[in-house]
Each structure stands twice: as C-alpha cells, then as structure tokens.
Amino acid sequence: MDETGSADKPKISATGLAADLAQRDEDGNPIRVCIIGAGEMGTDLVTAIRQMRGVEIASIVDRSLQKAVPALQIAGYEDDRGVVCETHASITQGLENNKIPIVPDAHEALSHDRVDVVIDATGVPEAGAELGMATLDAGKHLVMMNVEADVTIGPMMQDIAARKGLVYTVGAGDEPSSVMEMYDWVTALGYPIVAAGKGKNNAFRIDAVPDDYREEAERRNMNPRMLVEFVDGSKTMVEMCCIANATGLVPDKPGMHGPDCSLEELNQVLCPREDGGLLSQKGCVDFSVGKGVAPGVFIIADMRHHRVRERMNDLHLGPGPYYTFYRPYHLTSLEVPLSAARAVLYGTSDMKPLPRPVAEVCALAKRDLKAGDELDFIGETSYRSWAMRADEARSLGAIPVGLLDKGKVLNDIARGSLITRHDVAVNQDTPLYRLRCQQDTWLGYEACA
After folding, report:
1. Is there a contact between 421 and 400 (Cβ–Cβ < 8 Å)?
2. pLDDT for 149-169, tens place per residue?
3. Banded pLDDT at 252 (limits 50, 70, 90)
4. Which residues pair with 119 in a beta bridge?
5. In this structure, is the dihedral angle defined by the CA atoms of residues 12, 18, 24 and 28, taken in order, positive or negative?
6. Following CA atoms 362, 42, 176, 442 in sequence, which dihedral angle do they give, to the nearest 10 degrees?
7. What is the DSSP letter of 423?
8. Using an 8 Å Cβ cutoff, are 122 and 226 in contact?
9. Is 276 in contact with 241 (CB distance < 8 Å)?
C-alpha cells in the first residue's frame, strides 16, 4: 500500500465492526456518506474514509467549489475522480460512473436517495441548525462534528431524530466523545465519576484575536479564527459543555477551574475540597492546562472500596481513593467515520445530549463593547465562550454563545462581563434561533433565549 492508501482496499482478518464493514464491502453495499464541508475537517474525513472498507463517499458539499478537489487529491484519489453535480440526476450519474460528486447545494446532496448518513463538518452553528434539520427531514442519520450547534440545540435535534427513528450522534474522536467512551466504561463498572475532561493543548490567552495568530494559522494550514477559538478557551468551554449535557456532570463554577496540574496530579487536584482538591462537589467537568495532559482526555473515579483500592495499588495505580483513567490522544476527524458506520449498521449513537441540559455555553466580552456595536463570530474579537450551569445562566439572562453572531449591543458592556439579554439583541431571523426557541419552550422555560 502506498502512503495514500490502496485504490482497492486490502482484505484483512476482521472482527466486530470491521467484519461488518468488510461484509458490506463484499456485498457491494457500502455505507454511503455525505460530507458537508471540505475544509480541514472535511479533508480529514475524505482521507479517513479512503482507508476504510465498506464505507464510501456519496458526495462532498463544497459551496465555493474550491476545496473538494484538493481534499480528494490529498486523500490520494485520481485527479479526475471528483465531478461537480448540481442536481439529483447528476449526482446519480456521477456515482454510476464511479465518480465522487462535488455538490455546491447541501440540500441537493443530503437528500439524495443514495445517502445513508450525513456528517456536518462545517463548524458553524447556523449551518449545523439548518442542515441538521434538513438531514433529519430527509430521513438520514446525522453525525454532528459541529459541537457549537450541539450545545445550542442538541436536545431538540436528538428528540427529533429519535421520533423519526434516526440516529443523532456527536462524532467519535473529538475530546467529548473520547471522554464519553471512558465515561461509559467507568460507570458500567459502578464507580462514581468525580471529574471528567481534557488537557488544553495550547497557551490560554483570553484576549486572543485572529490578527495576532494569522501567521501561525497559515503555517499550520488553519483558519485564524478557528485557531483563536482554541487559544482563547472558547473551544474548551464548548467541549466541556457538550460532555456535561451528555452525562449530567456540571461545571463546578462558571468557567471551571482549569488548574495548571500534571497528569499525575489530576486526581489530587480535581477532587473534593475536603480531600485537598478544588471541587465543591463530585460529578464535574473541567480541564487542565498542566504539562502532560494534552492532547489526552481523562476521567477521575471514586474507587474507595478497600478491596478495589488494594487491587489498584497492586496494579501500580496508586493508593486511591481517587483514580485517573487517561487516554493520551484523540484522533479528531479521523475517527468520525466510525460513528457514521455504527449509526447505519447498529442504529446507535456514540454520544448524544440528555433531554434536559445541565450546562450552557455563554460568553464574556473580550473587549469593551459599545452600544450600537455588531457582534462578530466565536474566535474573533467581541467575546469568548464561558461555560456555566444551565440554571445559573438562565437566572442571569445569559445568551447562548451560538446565538451571538451579528447580535446588536444595546448597552455598553465592560471587558470581561457576561453578555446578557439586557445588553444584546440577538439576530432572530435564523434557523438556529428558531430551533433554540422551540427547545426552550419544549423544556418549559419562560423566555426564549
């Protein structure tokens, strides 16, 4: 096999999911995936699927028609493998000619009858709402890489999917679903969760703006705004909220603690205060900026039974009662096709929100905002994400961060202040806003966000 992967994927001795995918391949009935977005994440998806048996690309949505061809080339497909298709009929013709349709209109792609499952790789909450609903309306399973959309309207989308007999799932491989994998394992063994989270893998600079990171972003082949979303902590807040709303774990305080502690210190720091730690309670989400934790994820469990502690000590895992379970990596986009496969083959979700959110991603002003200003997007200059308990966010009138783009500032907001309904009027003419209002009404809240 060459570095891009063989054109005819090798047959291997397979069990479990791999065996089921191999059977789909041998039967000539691969799982067909529509990928929405051909940027960094979309390119990873195309490359990952290229390596797999039993999974094929039904279409790539690329509005600009500028990114899909390079994505296919990077993955190792022939230069003429992609073909632009604008209608259902042309998509069908492309597939029958063994081409990969590149489609500018997402609605044409996701509604095609040869699509089994759709992966949203846009990273834009508005797109996640519009195209996520269109996917479910078309009767397709939905894999959501757009965690910003999930933390805003995930419970509503999960409920709609369930009522339609479809799967809604956060994609495997990112930190939330990697934490969820360990969470399911530890809780199945019966051990209470003290804390769950991730290592933050870059310097924490809360006032970061794209202009300061443009050179680094270009060097790393990233969008500067996306890089800033990681640097200023916004992405961490979103990811921890996603975990919270899928597990019931909560931020111990607004913004969480984010201690500078090493992997070896985690179970001594992210534990209850009465045991020398930072937490006011067990059952929290949090993160560490300390050495040796990123790019991994962790679960801290309470395993205080004397026999269990004796065995754990024998296994060189320490005296307890709190133990850290750690996965030293997450493969981001490269694992996501597994979620698509499991959705189609087994009707299962790797990660989905609980019916009622326990956490909310709100926002703090990054700079002094003046009445009349128009807010920009996550990772830009106006605000940074801020995770809170859902009940606290509602009591303070905090606005979900996913709704802030193009919001109008009504009253001056000081740098570092929470952005609330009192001071900002959000843009109400969007699918995301309408779905959030439906979700708030469905949950019995008095006022729409």
Report:
1. no
2. 999 999 999 999 999 999 999
3. very high
4. 35, 143
5. negative
6. 50
7. T
8. no
9. no
Instruction: Reduce the DSSP state of residue 203 to 3 states and report it.
Output: coil
Q: Are 180 and 156 in contact (CB under 8 A)?
A: no
Alpha carbon distance 432, 23 (integer Å): 39
Q: From its phi and psi, is residue 115 left (phi > 0), alpha (psi between -120 and 50) or beta?
A: beta
Confidence label for 3 from pLDDT (cuts 50, 70 and 90): low
| Domains recognised in the chain with CATH numbers | 16-172+333-346 (3.40.50.720), 175-329 (no CATH), 359-442 (3.90.1210.10)
- CA–CA distances in Å: residue 51 to residues 162, 192, 401: 31, 38, 36
Residue the block writes with tokens 């399911």? 184
Nearest CA to 242 out of 101, 360, 163 is that of 360
pLDDT at 368 over 70: yes
H/E element holding 61?
Answer: strand 55-61
341-345, Cβ contacts within 8 angstroms, sequence gap of 24 or more: 341/17, 341/20, 341/21, 341/31, 341/54, 341/55, 342/17, 342/169, 343/117, 343/141, 343/143, 343/167, 343/169, 344/31, 344/116, 344/117, 344/141, 345/17, 345/20, 345/21, 345/24, 345/31
16 burial via Cβ count (<10 Å: 0-12, 13-18, 19+): exposed
What type of residue is 412?
D
Angle, helices 431-442/147-163, rounded to nearest 10 degrees: 60
Question: pLDDT class for 447, splitting at 50, 70, 90?
Answer: low
Q: For 253-299, write each residue's pLDDT tens digit.
A: 999 999 999 999 999 999 999 999 999 999 999 999 999 999 999 99
Answer whether 0.85 is exceeded by the pTM: yes
CA distance 402 to 394: 15
Please compute the mean of the pLDDT values over residues 56-71 and round it to a whole number.
Answer: 96
10 Å CB burial of residue 382 (0-12, 13-18, 19+) is buried
CB-CB neighbours of 326 under 10 Å: 16
> Rounded to the nearest 10 degrees, how much is the dihedral formed by the CA atoms of 169, 171, 172, 176?
-90
How far is the C-alpha of 61 from the C-alpha of 49, rounded, in Å?
16
